[in-house]
Design brief:
Length: about 375
């Protein structure tokens, strides 16, 4: 069964497909989107090693014209050096503006390849085949593309919506548990922004302990993708409503940079960042109904994370260049209540520092108790 979600932006409406064994559906999407022109398939290296040949073999059965390129895995791939290599490949293969670029990989791949698509020849159509849980529930949807800069994460980028997103949950079966948990960090975000039923759904999945339950994962992907599609459709350019999707991320990006990219996966840092956002909300005076269940879930998920030594002072320094600042002030997404986020800008630095200290202490505590 294939579930289809629509993203409706100002200039483009496109489908997000969620299901299992979607090779035939993908081939059909590629044929229609490329319109007889060439498809440039850009694969994440880890995915290509596991599934690339099978996926390409399924495409050989069609009349699709395609060529392949593989990029390294990991956050450090989102760099100007790898981006330049993609440009060399595309231009060396004489790409035209009528062709189609396809990102096949996790969030790093879609961010990087989408940015290449937005800039080569001043913009070429692209599509996404996310192959990680984080990619399916977040990174592939909404048209945010970009690379990292030495001063911070995702500081160079563009909005460039794909023609389609195809989420084949079967690909999640070969991910590590760590990658699954990282993806669940973004589901945790959506659950807090959504409401108590979604928190209960995610809590049940985590409590059951089978991180490879394909039926449950399909349900989680569909819920999160549908939530994000709705938000993006109302605010494509991140000027109002879409800002709530930054919940936990101001802290998470600071944690990632403070540790050095790759020490924690993005979704892992988001889990800690959400705990910090909850702590900050309480310090700002929000008394959140239903918080106990959510806080318990966040703590349980922190217990699944690898242990890293995080320096709170370095996190604060790293957060100083967050790209979502407003007139020099940092913006924090907080919860007035479960399912009701608010964006705060006038937050005292001392409260932010205290929230970071509290979240890092709790991360250490849960890590020790689950070691």
């Amino acid at each position: 069964m294939i579930n289809t979600i629509e993203v409706n932006t100002h200039g483009l409406t496109y489908p997000v497909l969620v299901g299992e064994e979607l090779e035939a559906a993908l081939a059909d999407l590629l044929k229609r989107a490329s319109r007889g022109n060439c498809c440039f398939l850009i694969f994440d290296a880890n995915f290509y090693a596991l599934h690339g040949q099978r996926l390409v073999a399924s495409l050989r059965k069609t009349r699709l014209r395609y060529t392949e390129f593989v990029v390294p895995s990991g956050e450090k791939t989102k760099s100007d050096i790898v981006l330049s290599g993609i440009y060399d490949f595309l231009l060396g293969e004489r790409i035209s503006r009528d062709d189609l670029i396809v990102a096949v990989g996790g969030g790093v791949t879609s961010d990087l390849v989408g940015y290449a698509a937005s800039t080569v020849l001043r913009g070429v159509n692209w599509a996404v085949v996310p192959t990680t849980l984080l990619g399916m529930v977040d990174a592939a949807i909404g048209g945010k593309t970009g690379i990292n800069h030495r001063q911070g994460k995702n500081l160079i980028g563009a909005f460039w919506q794909p023609l389609f997103v195809c989420c084949d949950v079967r690909f999640l079966m070969t991910l590590s548990e760590r990658q699954i948990v990282a993806g669940l960090g973004e589901v945790l975000k959506c659950a807090g922004l959504s409401g108590l039923p979604e928190i209960a759904m995610l809590s049940g999945f985590v409590r059951d302990g089978d991180l490879y339950d394909s039926k449950a994962l399909t349900h989680l992907v569909h819920f999160s993708a549908e939530y994000k599609a709705d938000v993006v459709s109302k605010d494509e350019r991140d000027t109002s409503r879409r800002l709530v999707l930054n919940y936990g991320h101001t802290f998470a990006h600071g944690i990632e940079k403070a540790l050095g990219y790759g020490k924690l996966l993005h979704g892992e840092a988001v889990i800690i960042g959400i705990d910090a956002a909850l702590a900050l909300g309480e310090r700002c005076g929000y008394r959140i109904r239903g918080l106990t269940a959510y806080r318990t879930l966040v703590g349980t998920m922190m217990g699944l994370l690898p242990k890293r030594k995080i320096d709170p002072a370095r996190v604060i320094d790293a957060m100083a260049l967050d790209k979502k600042r407003l007139s020099g002030e940092q913006r924090f997404v907080l919860l007035r209540r479960i399912g009701s986020p608010v964006v705060e800008t006038n937050v005292k630095p001392a409260l932010v520092a205290a929230a970071i200290d509290e979240a890092i202490s709790r991360y250490r505590e849960y890590g020790d108790s689950h070691a």
